[in-house]
Amino acid sequence: DPDVAQRLRAAFHYTVAGLCEEVGQDTGIQFSKQAVAAITEITFKQCGSFAKDLEMFAKHAKRTTINMEDVKLLARRSNSLLRYITQKSEELAL
Amino acid sequence: VREAAARGSRQAQTEDLTQVDVEHVEKVLPQL
Amino acid sequence: EDWGLTTEEFERWNRLYKIEPGDGIKKPIMPQSHFETLGDEERQTESPAEEVHELSLTEWRLAESPFPDFLVDHSDRCRHFISIMDMIEQMRHEEGDCSYEQKIQPYFHWEDVDI
Description:
The structure holds 3 protein chains of 3 kinds.
Chain A (H helix, E strand, L loop, with lengths): L1 H26 L2 E2 L1 H28 L7 H7 L4 H15 L1
Helix pairs in contact in A: 1-2, 2-3, 3-4
Chain B lengths: L1 H13 L4 E2 L1 H7 L4
Helix pairs in contact in B: 1-2
Chain C lengths: L6 H10 L10 E3 L22 E3 L21 H16 L7 H6 L11
Parallel strand pairs in C: 1-2
């Protein structure tokens, strides 16, 4: 349903604007509306890409449920990101 | 999102600007 | 049968392709990327004595449409990048109001957002 996708995008956009504002408060820097829009679109599409990857990882492991190990696989290309995700995973497990 | 915003901020700061414009996002986009 | 080069192959590589210091050829490297928001221990430092040519990811960008391909078409990641560059190009000259925001605004519902 394209309307659902657009609603999701709008909610995403709102959240991104809030996060940019937070970063801006830390740095004393503002974000133009166009910059917020660009970051929204970058990350929204990237989430779509993540979703496809996660589905493939789970399927490859013959599972129908995506789990934390699949998420860690997403982060495999960066040691620092993988470490961060793993730490979060352990916190959640606790 | 935070990483993109932080890198955009860094780029704007490098140019002595107080606002992140779409050009700054463009510049950090390839590495991001 | 073996992954390593044969003697003849090695000799050919050594003669034609190997880049030696003093050849006047700079070793091409990718620009280093690091995280702003995470503690990043992945910074690698090239030896200052080594001649390197840092490739530019931005100097040659004309990315509104994909370049011709041959046997392998452009990946989703590539198409994503192109679409974002295209979007940025369209927004570049906007001042104040953002067309993206105006287009998406009618779809916003407070109940979709976790306050």
